Amino acid sequence: MLCSIGKPHDSDLKAAIEEFTKRITNYFSVEWLIVPPQKNAATLSADELKKVEAASVLQKLTKDDYLVLLDERGKNISSPALATLIQQRGNESTKRIVFLIGGAFGVEDSVFKRANFVWSLSQLVFPHMIVRLILAEQVYRACSIIKNEKYHHV
User: Fold this and answer.
1) Lowest-pLDDT range, 3-12, 49-58, 109-118?
2) What CATH number did the domain enclosing 34 receive?
3) Sequential DSSP letters for the chain
4) Domain that holds residue 77
5) In a domain, 154, yes or no
6) C-alpha distances in angstroms, 16 versus 70, 83, 125?
7) Looking at residue 29, what is its pLDDT?
8) Using CA atoms, how far apart are residues 57 and 63, in angstroms rounded to an integer?
9) Domain total in the chain
10) Nearest-CA neighbor of 96 among 67, 139, 119?
11) Residues 87-127 pLDDT 10s
């Protein structure tokens, strides 16, 4: 599952996100879960908002889900390393890997603690919509690496 806290996909990037998501379905069942922003978000502090968002996300996870949290403070890995991570979860019969893009202010500590792996795409901070596109493309790339297909060039 690909999960993001925030607004629906940006119309300018929606087609590309959907294209890579569709390509992933050739390998694994995948869906996007977009957790909508809180209606009263403007009245909450960043910490209060992260707490509400954390509760919303954590209730959607099962105890067996393998949670990969995207955060700039996480570990940088290569595309082949992402493929290895996904393949290892498959070898361990993990039923569902959840890739989570947090909210505008990041995520609460409870989500960090629940995460099985914290992944940084870069030390740079990107807009959420671009991260969604990069995530979908990188998961597709990892699938093509696992299957030794031509999409990824070394």
Assistant:
1) 3-12
2) 3.40.1280.10
3) -EEEESSSPPHHHHHHHHHHHHHHTTTS---EEEEPPPTTGGGS-HHHHHHHHHHHHHTT--TT-EEEEEEEEEEE--HHHHHHHHHHHHHTT-S-EEEEE-BTTB--HHHHHH-SEEEES-SS---HHHHHHHHHHHHHHHHHHHTT-TTS--
4) 2-146
5) no
6) 20, 21, 20
7) 92
8) 13
9) 1
10) 67
11) 999 888 888 999 999 988 889 999 999 999 999 999 888 88
- According to the model, what pLDDT value does residue 154 have? 61
R_g over Cα of the chain: 15
Range 2-28 average pLDDT: 91
Q: State the pTM of this model.
A: 0.91
Q: In this structure, are residues 17 and 136 in contact, taking their beta carbons and an 8 Å threshold? A: yes
- Which tokens sit at 102? 């947090």
